[in-house]
Amino acid sequence: MNGTIAMITFRAMLGRKRALLLLGLPLLLLVLAAALKVTGNDDLDVSANILQKFGLATLLPLLALIAGTGVIGPEIDDGQIMYVLTKPVPREVIVLTKLVVAIVLVTAFAAVPTALAGLILTGTTAQLTPAFTIGVLIGGVVYSAVFVALAVASRNAVTIGLLYALVWESLLGNFAPGAKSASIQQWCLSVTDALTDASPVRSTVDLPVAIGLLVAVTLVAAFLATFRLRSLPVASAD
C-alpha cells in the first residue's frame, strides 16, 4: 500500500457529497430495523429477510459500487490519475491501495450497519447477525475488486455496475437459475447460510463452489485492474 495515495483517496471519498451517498442507505437500514423492533415485527423470518434483501442484496452492492468506482474512476475521468502514474509507484501498488480504501469504506458503511441492524432485530439468535456480517464483509471485498476493475476499464463503470447489481442479480436472479448461480450475492449468501441455523437463509450455490468463485473473481478483477492501469498511457489522462 501507499499511505499518501490512501490518505488522498479517503479525503476525496469522504467529501460532503460522497459522504451523504455513503451514509444514506446505512441510516435507512438502521431506522427500518429500529422501527420493526419497536412495532414487534422482528421475528426471525422478517429479520432474515431484511438483512438479506436490504443488507446483502441492496446496501452492499450499491455502496461497493460507489466506493469501488469512486476511489479511482473520477481521477481517470478528469486526468488527475496522470500525477499518480508519473510517480515511481508500481501500478499494482496503486490498484491495491485503491482497493483497500474501497474495502475499508464498504466495511464501515455496509458491514458495520448490517451488524448493528442484526443486533437490533435479533441479537445473536441463530447466529444470524454474525453470519450476515461475515457475508457482507466477504462480499465487500469481491464487489470492491470488481468495481475497481470496472472503473479502470470503462468510463461507464457506474452504469455497468448498476445493470449487474440491479438487473442481473436482483431482477434476472429471481427468475433465471443460471443468473442466480452466477451471482456474487448468492455466493456470499452461501457463506452466510453455512454460518447460521436460521431456516429462511438459503443459497442455491454449494459452499465450496461459492468460496472458489469468490476467491477467483477477486483475484481476476485485481489482476485485470492492474493490467489495464499498466496499459493506460500517461498521455491518455490529459
Keywords:
238 residues, mainly alpha, 11 helices, 0% strand
Structure explained in plain terms:
It is a single chain. 79% of the residues lie in helices and 0% in strands. It is globular and about 55 Å long.
- Number of E strands: 0
Strand residues, percent: under 5%
Report the mean per-residue pLDDT as an integer: 89
The termini sit apart by 25 Å
Element-level helix/strand string:
HHHHHHHHHHH
Taking Cα atoms only, what radius of gyration do you get, to the nearest Å? 18 Å
* Share of helical residues: over 70%
Largest beta-sheet details:
none
Q: Which structural class do you get from the secondary structure elements?
A: mainly alpha
- Summed up, the helix count is 11
Task: Based on Cα principal axes, name the global outline.
Answer: globular
Poorly predicted regions are none
Secondary structure: elements and pairs:
Elements: H1 3-13, H2 16-39, H3 44-70, H4 73-78, H5 81-85, H6 91-122, H7 128-153, H8 157-171, H9 177-181, H10 184-195, H11 207-230
Helix pairs in contact: 1-6, 2-3, 2-6, 3-6, 3-7, 3-8, 6-7, 6-11, 7-8, 7-10, 7-11, 10-11
